[in-house]
Amino acid sequence: MHAITMRAPGGPDVLTWAERDDPEPGPGQVLLDVAASAVNRADLLQRQGHYPPPPGAPDVIGLECSGTIAALGPGVSGWEVGHPVCALLAGGGYAERVAVPVGQLMPVPAGMDLVTAASLPEVACTVWSNLVMVAQLGVGEVLLVHGGAGGVGTHAIQVGKAIGAMVAVTAGADDRLARCAELGADVLINYRDQDFVAEVRKATDGRGADVVLDNMGASYLDRNLDVLARHGRLVTIGMQGGASGTLNIGALLGKCASLTATGLRYRPLDEKAEIVAAVVEHVWPLIETGEVRPIVHEVLPIQRAADAHRLMQDAHPFGKVVLRVR
Ligand SMILES: NC(=O)c1ccc[n+]([C@@H]2O[C@H](COP(=O)([O-])OP(=O)(O)OC[C@H]3O[C@@H](n4cnc5c(N)ncnc54)[C@H](OP(=O)(O)O)[C@@H]3O)[C@@H](O)[C@H]2O)c1
Questions:
Q1: pLDDT at residue 210 greater than cutoff 90
Q2: Ligand 1 mean position, distance from CA 238 (Å)
Q3: Residue of 37, 41, 189, 266 to mutate, ligand 1, most atoms within 8 A of C-beta
Q4: What CATH homologous superfamily does 124-261 map to?
Q5: For the purposes of burial, counting CB atoms within 10 Å of the CB of 324, is it exposed (0-12), middle (13-18) or buried (19 or more)?
Q6: Integer Cα distance of 265 and 282 in angstroms
Q7: Residue of the nearest CA to atom 48 in ligand 1?
């Protein structure tokens, strides 16, 4: 098969489409003929040498894909060769073939093409596991989504609205905020010139956010605690503003609030399988009725993975960047 390989860690130009050995599906795995993959921020870090794959995962970049089942590994039942699927991966998506544990397979939502389906696994699993399984976001609560115009953010806005929350978002430009509003966001905050704590308080009669979905980490820690309502839940999924900060425990304690940080890629197989099953049960029906839409900024051929990384790095895509493999 061919895959995107790296000569050495570095800039986008180290990404090269080259021949690799085909993966073998192990026990409990299937082999997929990949139709498409999608770019995640973590891929850029892996390319720079900062985000190694977990033990046993392929060293090829790519945390999600869609495709058709080409072969079943030992002990697999309930799936058939030829089935169209999409999948959450620990690596290996930027390739013509990948082996996937069956617990990470999802049927393609009814009516959706395979290329679009590649944009869903990472955002759907990240958003559902954090907003619902961790933070237990409820009807009528206030959700603040940082980075509302990104891949995760555009999905989180829609899921938050489907749950019945009031959704506030931050983004770095007014035109991106306007597009967040089209997805249902109620409160629009330009993080470059507005204070999100003040804006969320103003929009909620001083109450603040019940749940904050945070991509920034250290640089937003104090203000995220500040914006939380009593019994608020801060769920951190990214460290775009740094990994290490000082936690004001008093601020958490005074509000009976909580802070949780999760990362999908390193979770054990049984936890991933639980998340994937919940997504298929709860999110796929929202996608099939059109209440939640996949937001794809651009589809590029996999051979242009370097351009896709530049786009993600420099051009602020709205939603996901997808890589077509076949
Ligand atoms: N923990 C996990 O399991 C997991 C899984 C998937 C993703 N993630 C993380 O989640 C984050 C979002 O991922 P993604 O795929 O959606 O990436 P993305 O599409 O590149 O989005 C990144 C977002 O960050 C926003 N941003 C930049 N500076 C900001 C600031 N100062 N305040 C608020 N927002 C800011 C950008 O907004 P503008 O473009 O409008 O400036 C953009 O919307 C990343 O940090 C990623 O690593 C974590």
A1: yes
A2: 7
A3: 41
A4: NAD(P)-binding Rossmann-like Domain (3.40.50.720)
A5: middle
A6: 21
A7: 237
